[in-house]
Amino acid sequence: MSEELSEILENAESAIADRNSDLTRSLCEGLHPADLAELYEDQDAGTRRFLVDTLGSEAFTEVLAQIPDTLVEETLDQFQPDEQREMLEAIPDDDLVDILQDVSESKRKDFIELLDEEQQDNTRTLLRYGEDTAGGRMTTQVARIRETMSVKDAIDHLRPDLESTETMARIFVVDENERLIGKIRLRDLAFNPWDTLIRDVLTEDDQSILASADQEEAANMLSRYDLVLLPVVDESNRLLGVITADDAIEIIEEESTEDMEKAAGISGEQSEESYLNTALYTHFRRRAGWLLILALLAILSGFVMMRFEQTLIDVYLLSLFLPMVVAAGGNTGGQASTMVIRAMALGELDREDTGRVIWKELRLGILLGGLLAVFIGIVAVFGPPAFGFSLPGNISFAKFGLTVAIALGAQVATSTVIGAMLPIGARAIKLDPAVIAAPAITTVVDVSGMVIYFTVARSILSL
Amino acid sequence: MSEELSEILENAESAIADRNSDLTRSLCEGLHPADLAELYEDQDAGTRRFLVDTLGSEAFTEVLAQIPDTLVEETLDQFQPDEQREMLEAIPDDDLVDILQDVSESKRKDFIELLDEEQQDNTRTLLRYGEDTAGGRMTTQVARIRETMSVKDAIDHLRPDLESTETMARIFVVDENERLIGKIRLRDLAFNPWDTLIRDVLTEDDQSILASADQEEAANMLSRYDLVLLPVVDESNRLLGVITADDAIEIIEEESTEDMEKAAGISGEQSEESYLNTALYTHFRRRAGWLLILALLAILSGFVMMRFEQTLIDVYLLSLFLPMVVAAGGNTGGQASTMVIRAMALGELDREDTGRVIWKELRLGILLGGLLAVFIGIVAVFGPPAFGFSLPGNISFAKFGLTVAIALGAQVATSTVIGAMLPIGARAIKLDPAVIAAPAITTVVDVSGMVIYFTVARSILSL
């Protein structure tokens, strides 16, 4: 954020606190809707009311699409029906659909009825697509022309919708059944003689996506092929709308946040509000579920520990390395699952790659386990005597070090493979791989780590 | 990936395996450079050579910018100097700089000298900006005009560079010192009478970024303000170039991947290669560092456990809940750090918000700790007797349950606050917050959890 902007926002905050309408208006007038939305979102209900009254419907039209779900209805409700109509009609159709998805069902019906008939139809069609599909994200306000037009025809054809068309960077060429044939760039219109035929400048376009496809797939295509716009079509290749690069940015940010949160065992939809503006209860609800489940599962590790209590009492030095062996599994399993989950999210791993992934992680697990085994094994042989710890008479520190090394190596190798396999397994049974949270993997390999450690100890130390 | 594309790629794979040049050429001709790059990247060195020989320099020009760092030099080396010149001259300057950053220093010098003088100067200037800055990411191939021009003048002025200008969606208006005044949209040229003055259609532009700013800041601005292009300027507001929305997508994907990897204790730069194509040794190197450090730190937990060995022997049922109390801290600390790190990455948390974050996480920690304490406390009172476990005569299950509950509550509350504070602390000492990996937090709260558990047990159970 630039210093200038910070200063304006600070001054606006005090003007708002003083309920100084004129100053508030003059300070907020120049703000970008995104900044105004953040300012608005940070206020309490009374102050939000003051802002709505002071700035009016025009200022809030673009703000509406930028504020969190929970504030949309409250904000719209403070305007008169004719103001609401003006606001809703001025919002691009993809944002309008987002907004309508955020309000209660009865309100949605009321709001849609405020629109003119064409917009009503269009909105109802868009609302039919799932929120997370390409269709649910697209705008229908796309520039479309016929291949039989000349440059002059195309300019005349596009002129009436000049301001309502979301983007003109690409103009799509369709046949008489609205089927997508190709595209031209706006510069092809601007820089060619007016009698040039569209047919002669168009590029055939094979990059498009079905309206029913997942929004993440659309974002990945825009990213992979460095597209400005991705056309959205139906099963008959009829052009329905476009997804823009800034939609792709939003989709990718949302999906990344969700994946990170899932990986940390935070459940539910990512909150649209910022961290600080999300209610305490919402944070609580999203975190409590996994914590409870994992706490119950972790009691399994306790059972294993009790089962091997005597081993621990016989060679109490085993406690020194027990937490380390167990934790190393969680760490390495978490690394492996993160790599695999991320590669899946970026579309790098197909189902046929499963064997290659497991083979790679198996070798990696053996390498990492080997490294740790050698390193910590040496620590286990020479460390404890240096600190004055002792072992029962019949056990040498060499044997003890060997125990720690073998257990650690085995734990790291198995945990790496388990960490890689769990997300692959999740996908195979149609679960989101990211839902296999690192804490879940840690809990699983905590149990296996204890079993490995004590079993190796008993066998090598003949307990 | 569409079925059609998968089929072409499959057929191409077999044509390549058969060393069938004609079939390979005809199948690869229609491929998008991004798809051809992936196909190329998946082959062994001999096959890559075959592809280079078969498809030639023209096909590889656009592919160069899409293949991993490690293959760029090898690929370029297979062409003759005059082919290299043609390839390098045809690549947009931001991609060219990326490519030159990937080759050895001596080669870089050779390649730059192949370019014409203007491109040499331009490239050397761009190479001076850091790889992760706005300047290092921008393209200088930006459409720029003067405010005194008419629409006709502007069209004539822009026409010679029509094909080399990366994007014309926004055309920037500069004064005689190249200082940024504003911008127009290409549609303002296409749809206005030729004698319209640029001055009358321009929008003053206050969205720009310094060349020295971090690329992540540039991506966040493009995302926040839904921009198609973000102009990059120097300290005197002179227009140097632009960053495009598809650059922003790339930056956001890279940074998200890096943050996720860091959060899992995977160190070093994110590999440009895909997961499967990254060498085993590279994976190994990136994961081994943290694993070793954390393994050594985890021995601290072992020290604590040994120190309290007698407590464990006195009330051996304490083992049943020890792993759970310890793990709950790691889980809740990991959740808190993930939320805070992500909020920081999205630019939501300023330095002044530190107090609010800690206050929020403290209350959350107490709520989550309270919930788990009540729930697992009840399990601890009624569970063990149901399974036939017993306690030393002087200790009741009620007291035992109280011990588990208090220890768990305290562990969860402190871990939540620690998890939130570590990334904030990291930023305060100018470290990347994301580097405070979840495994590191787990290791820290493993130690504190053991201390809390045994201290609470000793005091409540009077051991």
Please give the order of strands in the largest beta sheet of chain A: 1-2-3-4
- What's the domain count of chain A? 3
- Give the overall shape of chain A, derived from the CA principal axes: elongated
**Biggest beta sheet attributes of chain A:** 4 strands, mixed
Strand count of chain A = 7
CATH class of the largest domain in chain A: Mainly Alpha
**Low-pLDDT regions of chain A:** none
Order of helical and strand elements of chain A:
HHHHHHHHHHEHEEHHEEHEEHHHHHHH
- Determine the fraction of residues in helical runs of chain A and give it as a percent range: 55-70%
- Going by CATH, the homologous superfamily of the largest domain in chain A would be SLC41 divalent cation transporters, integral membrane domain
Summarize the structure.
Two copies of one chain form a homodimer. Chain A is an alpha/beta fold and 463 residues long. Chain A is 65% helix and 7% strand.
